[in-house]
Amino acid sequence: MNSLITKILSLRCLEHLIVDEDFKIVELSTRVHHLSEIPDHLTIEQDVRLGFPELFGMEEIFEAIRQGEQNNFDLKGIVRYPEDSSPIYIDICITQNIEDACSSNRLMILVEDVTERMVLEQSFVQGANEANLLLRTLTASKQYIDQIVTSMADALLVTTLSGQIKRMNPAAQALLEYNEVELRGEPISTIIRGVDSWKSETGEKEVETDCQTKSGKIIPVAFSCSIVQTEVEHFQGYVYILRDMTERKQAELAKQEFLAMISHEVRTPITSITGMANLLLDTDLTDIQQDFVQIIDTSGNALLRIVNDFLDFSKIEAGKLELEEQPFNLQNCVYQAFDIVASKAKEKGLKLTFVDPPVSTIVLGDITRLCQVLVNLLSNAIKFTHTGSVEVSVTIPKSIDRNNEIQFAVKDTGIGIPRDTEGCQGHRLDRLFKAFTQVNASITRQYGGTGLGLAICKQLCDLMGGRIWVESEPNVGSIFYFTITASVIREGVGKETIDVTKDTAIDARIAEQHPLKILLVEDHLINQKMIQLMLQGMGYEANVASNGLEALLALRHQPYDVVLMDVQMPEMDGLTASEHICQEWTLDTRPRIIALTASAMWGERDRCFASGMDDYLTKPIRVQELVQVLKKCQPIITIEEGRRKKEEVYIWGLEPQIKTGDLFHGRGIKPPQGNG
Asked: Could you tell me which residues carry 4-aspartylphosphate (predicted)?
């Protein structure tokens, strides 16, 4: 073969052989040996099929090309070297001799190394297969996620990073009454109220707010927001999960109303029992009668504590307990707690002391809840102490700032807390502050209790930014420590130990020292009698009205300094009556209104104050609490002003009319009796 053709074939990376009609090699290129499994057989006059076994059986093909029946024939081969595991892929082309086309006896065999191309093709095929598998996986994954999103009971909305809505699931469309097309591109703030501030403050935390539907309906929802961050900007944004809270809110309201009803229905008779028992204890009784009445009083107070524990626990669990921030005297708070438990300590002969009380220390916080913790711990200490004393101490940090940790300690000489087992070093304190638990069953049987007292103390301490713990020694006593975080406004330090165990008899001279004209508005006859007797014990003679209508008529008949207003009454409740009083009388001429309620549910205090009431007492009413609220009241109407008021709004013998609307019609009643 001439050199030009050889160079051309070499440039094309083609090796060649020329064979005769007997398959004998006539000519071959220099590097063709590298493409054969048996290079030694590729020599002149050797059968080409020995070097390329792929050509065996090609006799008919060779003959057809020689005869001109076909131009060429292609086939593929693989060359494997024993010493090399990597195969060489070759393409073989059988064609007529290019140099001597006239000779039909000789054929040319072109051999090309196509290993690189084959590897690349295999790589492409493998990549295509993998891409196809990935596509199917992504498609299935998308279908899977779409089905999950579609079947979600909660509403789901997806927005861009700037807050424009991109997608929403069927639950969101049903909740908001929009289809996806209508909301696409709209800001999420048009749907969820206050979403921007909630998102920045809470991150992924679930919060409660409202959303507005297409029809304008406001729906309470709880939503959480999560950011979606990917390398592709199109797939970045926020995911909002909305849960319709309508049914839950209705259930909470129904539960609240039910508990309020139970609270009122249970506390009302307890008020009568404990109130009358207290009044009886202040009368001349035989020893047997004294014991009987004491049992009634003790049992009533025990029942009341159980009711209060469950109501407080329910408030805290529902997250409805809100703390007040008002300045109060820390020493007075401890004394208030002592006043409540002093009679029980005196009955058991225990010494109740305040060790080194801080004098004139004013702090900013919730005196009611702090007093509740102290009362619970003091009651427990008295319950489990048979002889000795119960002491309270308070530690205030030396450096005062806005957030001070104030520590309280309630120490007793009682039975202590038993160990788990004989020789065990640890106390069973892990269960002590958990709800519905006691140290052991025998304690429950012997001393009673719901097991909620200390759990409530712990939750209240947590709410006040503090903690609670105990140190105890069996048969020696216990010390319950707790802390609160509060701002100290003014600090003083005392250097004395005060014994506050004292007699709690009613002072009959209060009315002389602090005269007031009192109107009692109460529909329950027993409670009427009981509160009247309490007031009589202080020297007051109160007039009585049975509902809000009668209270308004009585106030038009003569002025009063104080109205003790029951909340739940027939015909007109205390809240409505208070609103009318505030509308009809100016602030400097109207009486001070004190709420009397048997409901201890959350929001009751706020409802009373919102209606215009000035103070608040929870039934059963304790004498000392009643004395405290009455001491806050001042005579606000002189005799001349009262007479002028009577002449303006009341002519005896005519039926008075309510001035504040048509909510009800006035009706004549007998003038209130008593000289107040």
From this structure: 566
